[in-house]
Write a structure and sequence with these properties.
With 747 residues, the chain is α+β, with helices and mostly antiparallel strands. The protein contains 28 helices and 26 strands. The two termini are 39 Å apart.
């Protein structure tokens, strides 16, 4: 049996670490998929529980030098993140305290030498070479000690033949430290007058910790959407047990429990109202700003806010089955997924670190043996290459944008299930809209009342609604609902007869009422006159006209139709303005389909399509080279949603449609389709910007670090400047990804 789980990963420092974890996990028999999100620090594993256990996965990852833990609660995650940032802050403060005097002692004499005052520099190095180097060593050791984890992880990764960012830093700074340590002993025991380079190790380590600290804080902001969602659920619930109200922890609520919620309180779990009436704020889950009225029989979404009435409701879904838990799981899976656009960056990151180590060694050898430079000159080149080439920015470029983009969507009721779906939505050029329930409301409404013979529309509606109260036909239900909406006083019929395929006969207030189609009128010998043409015109507009006769005389026509949603025309216009072709698909006849399409502003229509043929219709559009998004809400839409390049389900639809879709619109507003595609375009553009700057950074900096600019008469790249550039490149990628939080979505 295949199972899927998301685990928290600890100990990663760069994209090479993520690739290493994926590699060792995929080697296990029974593991079908293993994806690591470096930015989110999560491992998504899909595995055969009969062939491999979760413990096996954890062991193999831990042997690779990383830690794994099961999913955390929002409080546990907050504590862990705070501890991580706090630990980095302490390391930064300690490193800075010792590095500042180290930098001054080592560099001020040089500054004075360069400014034309060589006496101090000469005096120190001539009279106190040993004392100077031992003092610098004493200041460097605490910095090395507090950052010992970098060396441990870095050299361990090299031993396992999977070098990472820490390997580059450890190798570079260790080279500077050990060479300076040799010079310290030479000054002490061999009367040398050599200058050590401890400050390079101290300053680089301090700058690396500064970069990690800034990166950790920025990473925390990319996952704010998940934190907000996790923080929505209340910690306790008031449950009726044996007729007594008791407050229990949310984990103790069971399906079938009756929950009491007062004004201002949050709904603990999903359920159905059994007593009371209120309005509920569901905005944090659906993006819908207006409160929704709830009464007996209406569904409740856990974590929504009860506004103004006390209600009791029966719990139907608890724990990980609630809507909120499912949303969190969908968003986490999306944030842990990889977009196809990241494939190039992943491939480069996997081979990048070993290649950089080779380039650094060759550069050192070239400058020393062929260039005739000193060993220290060659080692500065070696260290600068190792430090500046860390692929952190490359590894962060895609996952950070996906995290922020999918989080932004979740905040607006747009659930994007994967990075692949996010990228594919960017390519969509054709959107196929199902008619019923997507463009239209999904159930019939009264649209026209044509009154004749001195009758008023209100009176006709009252009589018709009174007669249809005993009917079970959807058209009759629409008339009854309209009468109730208008506040009409309905009368109980004294006689009633339903005529299959034609309409009804009823006796109301001493009058004989007929409501039905032309066949019923013809059988009852009710003359239609010119009003047959009026009915034909209404039918041409996609409406269903029903004739009404009172005591054998035509009294009017009531037209019923599945009306389009208020936002449908605006949604279609938005898509068309984005250069997207909009196609309507329906099983209705061509005349009705054309009428609805005209109201929505759609010109391309696929009519009289059977439910089983919807997927084939989508396939035909794809065969024309079109990238197709299918939008639907019903069970019969599921195959077409799965067939489309991007399946988009209206949130108010069925569970089957939502399962088959790549994107779920929780609010159920059609305008969110354009918003989802806009978000996709913005996110992919952001990823491209990140990848461009990450590539440019490495392409530009590595040749400079190798000394090619120096050969052309330019300066040599100082390893300390390389450390600053490396840290800033990662932070700049994170900052650019966070700009997505400011994107305005018209949902």
């Amino acid at each position: 049996m295949m199972e899927s789980v998301i685990l928290n990963v600890g100990g990663m420092t760069c994209a090479a670490c993520a690739k290493n974890i994926e590699r060792v996990t995929r080697k296990l028999d029974g593991v079908a998929e293993a994806t690591v999100n470096f930015a989110a620090e999560k491992l998504h594993v899909r595995y055969d529980a009969a062939a491999v256990s979760l413990l096996d996965v954890m062991r193999v990852v831990e042997r690779a030098g990383f830690t794994l833990a099961r999913e955390e609660s929002v409080d546990e995650a907050e504590v862990r993140k705070a501890q991580e940032i706090g630990g980095l802050r302490r390391r930064l403060i300690i490193s800075a305290i010792f590095t500042a005097p180290l930098f001054v002692i080592s560099m001020v004499p040089h500054f004075m030498y360069w400014m034309g005052m060589p006496e101090l520099h000469h005096w120190i190095m001539h009279n106190f070479p040993a004392q100077n180097t031992w003092l610098q060593l004493g200041l460097t050791l605490p910095v090395v000690a507090v950052n010992w984890a970098i060396y441990k992880k870095g050299f361990l990764a090299m031993v396992r033949r999977s070098p990472n960012m820490d390997s580059l830093i450890a190798k570079g700074t260790a080279a500077a430290f050990l060479y300076s340590l040799y010079l310290t002993f030479a000054n002490t025991f061999m009367a040398g007058h050599y200058e050590p380079y401890f400050e390079i190790a101290g300053v680089i380590l301090t700058l690396i910790v500064l970069g990690k600290y800034m990166e950790a804080r920025a990473k925390g902001k990319t996952g704010e959407a998940i934190k907000k969602l996790m923080g929505l659920a209340p910690k306790t619930a008031k449950v009726l047990r044996n007729g007594i109200e008791a407050e229990v922890f949310i984990d103790e609520v069971a399906v079938g429990d009756i929950i009491v919620v007062r004004p201002g309180e949050k709904m603990p779990v999903d359920g159905v109202v059994v007593e009371g009436e209120t309005s509920v704020d569901e905005s944090m889950l659906t993006g819908e700003s207006m409160p929704v009225t709830k009464g007996v029989g209406d569904g409740i979404i856990g974590a929504s806010i009860n506004k103004n009435g006390a209600i009791k409701y029966r719990a139907t879904k608890v724990g990980k089955d609630t809507a909120l838990a499912q949303i969190i799981q969908l968003v986490e899976q999306a944030q842990g997924s990889r977009a196809p656009i990241a494939a190039l960056a992943d491939a480069i990151s996997e081979r990048f670190v070993p290649a950089i180590i080779i380039i650094a060694i060759l550069s050192l050898a070239g400058w020393y043996f062929l260039g005739g430079e000193t060993l220290w000159f060659a080692m500065r080149i070696f260290i600068a290459i190792l430090i500046v080439a860390c692929p952190c920015a490359l590894g962060l470029a895609t996952p950070t944008s996906i995290m922020v983009g999918t989080g932004k969507g979740a905040e607006n009721g747009i659930l994007i299930k994967s990075g692949e779906s996010l990228e594919m939505a960017y390519k969509v050029k054709t959107v196929v809209l199902d008619k019923t329930g997507t463009i239209t409301v999904g159930k019939p409404h009264v649209t026209d009342i044509v009154a004749l013979g001195g009758h008023s529309p209100a009176e006709l509606l009252r009589l018709a609604a009174s007669g249809e109260r005993l009917s079970e036909h959807p058209l009759g239900e629409a008339i009854v609902n309209k009468g109730l909406e208008d506040g009409l006083a309905l009368t109980e019929p004294t006689a009633f007869n339903s005529i299959t395929g034609q309409g009804i006969m009823a006796a109301i207030d001493g009058q004989n009422i007929l409501i039905g189609n032309k066949g019923l009128m013809d059988e009852s010998r009710v003359g239609l006159g010119d009003y047959a043409d009026v009915a034909a015109n209404l039918a041409g507009e996609g409406k269903t006209p029903m004739f009404m006769a009172i005591d054998g005389v035509l009294a009017g026509i009531i037209a019923v139709a599945d009306i389009i949603k208020p936002e449908s025309r605006e949604a279609v216009a938005q898509l068309q303005s984005m250069g997207i072709e909009v196609v309507m698909i329906t099983g209705d006849n061509a005349a009705t389909a054309a009428a609805v399409a005209k109201q929505a502003g759609i010109t391309a229509v696929l009519a009289e399509v059977l439910p089983a043929d919807k997927a084939e219709s989508v396939r035909k559009l794809q065969s024309q080279g079109k990238v197709v998004a299918m939008v639907g809400d019903g069970i019969n839409d599921a195959p077409a949603l799965a067939q489309a390049d991007v399946g988009i389900a209206i949130g108010g639809g069925t569970d089957v449609a939502i399962e088959s879709a790549d994107i779920v619109l929780m609010r159920g507003q059609l305008t969110a389709v354009a918003a989802a595609i806009t978000l996709s375009r913005k996110t992919i553009a952001n990823i491209r910007q990140n990848l461009f700057w990450a590539f440019i950074y490495n392409v530009a900096c590595i040749p400079i670090a190798m000394g090619l600019w120096y050969l052309a008469g330019g300066p040599l790249l100082d390893p300390m400047i390389a450390a600053v550039a490396m840290s800033l490149s990662s932070v700049s990628v994170l900052a650019n990804a966070l700009r997505l939080k400011r994107v305005k979505l018209m949902v």
